[in-house]
Amino acid sequence: MRMRMNNFIAYGMVILGAGFWGLTGLFVQNLYDYGFTPWQVVTLRLTFSSLILLTMLAIFARSYLKIRLVDLPYFIALGVVSIAFFNWFYFQVMDLASLSVAVVFVYTSPVFAAIIAKIFFNEALTVTKIIAILMTITGSAFAIEFFPIGEFSLTIQTIIYGLLAGFFCSTYSLIGKNVSRWYHPFTITFYAMLCGTLFLIPTSGIWEKHQAFTSGGVWLNILGIVVISTVLAYLLYTNGLTYIESSKATILSSIEIVIAVLVGVIAFNEIFTGWQLLGFLLLFVSLFLTVFSFKRRRKTKKE
Q1: How far is CA 121 from CA 42, 112, 158, in A?
Q2: What's the Cα-to-Cα distance from 148 to each of 93, 160, 207, 253, 284, rounded to whole Å?
Q3: What is the rounded CA–CA span in Å between residue 52 and residue 279?
Q4: Which is deepest, 49, 109, 202, 208, by most CB within 10 Å?
Q5: Distances (CA, A) of 265 to 26, 98, 100, 175
């Protein structure tokens, strides 16, 4: 009975955490209205998230703050490449197109992960993976309205930014493989965000927006993107993984797409065509195929 209850709570935590990720665009778009650039919004997100995580670890788990200097390059790569660049391209697409389209591009990351894993780790491209990749590409094409009208509803710049968001998102798990065996996820997340922060602050010009920080609305949205869509989202999702398989958690986390789309429709009056909704459906199916392919591969290795 206890295990069932733990599983039930874990499902809720994973769904809620992913749902909080889906709210990211709401706070980002609001911060744009106060004059912040995408690069500055990323700076705000990582800086305040790092401070909160540092405080939590210093109080409750100081042992998690210990790292080896030899692993520092991995944390720098995670912070700069996988977090800072990913967030910047992701937020750029929100600014140039819409929240929903930005989320579509993020969910192309399994395609890049599969290709990179094949090239650098010699992981097999199974039939299921190939089908999932093709469905992701087709779904994305419908979502950005390249199919069936035969022309892009987005600029080439936006499409490139979107693909780069998906690419940099995919690098997190691949780079993180090198340190995940040695460190707790909280340790990895904190030092990755800290390294990203140290890279972003000098290049952001955030101090030029000192007037904006006198507004309560700015702080409300900073708290939203930091506390709700970063710290709480991560803590809920990570703790949920304690009780359920990562494959199930990945499927449950697709609720992020639903929440992001709803935010776009309700908060920003985004309108979707039937073809775009078909694109989202194909993305969901490809995500399921990717997860089940990974699950079968793990079973085969164990056997």
Answers
A1: 31, 13, 30
A2: 22, 20, 46, 29, 19
A3: 37
A4: 49
A5: 11, 10, 9, 35
Which secondary-structure segment (H or E) carries 70?
A: none
d(CA 191, CA 196): 8
Residue 140, token pair as written in the block: 């994305």
Using CA atoms, how far apart are residues 271 and 102, in angstroms rounded to an integer? 15
Axis-axis angle for helices 24-33, 38-60 (nearest 10): 130
Rounded Cα–Cα distance for residues 45 and 166 (Å):
19
| CA pair distance 233, 20, nearest whole angstrom | 5
Find out whether the peptide bond into 148 is cis, omega within 30 degrees of 0. yes
d(CA 64, CA 70): 16
A 10 A CB-CB count for 123 gives 16
What single-letter amino acid sits at 275? W
Q: Give the model confidence (pLDDT) of 73-110 as tens digits.
A: 999 999 999 999 999 999 999 999 888 888 888 878 87
pLDDT tier at 148, thresholds 50, 70, 90: low
Which token pair is 32?
Answer: 């744009």
Peptide bond into 73 cis (omega under 30): no
> Any alpha helices (H) in 37-85, and if so which ranges?
38-60, 72-77
156-205 pLDDT, tens digit per residue, is 899 899 999 999 988 987 888 788 889 988 899 999 999 999 999 999 99
What is the C-alpha separation between 122 and 102, in angstroms, rounded? Answer: 30
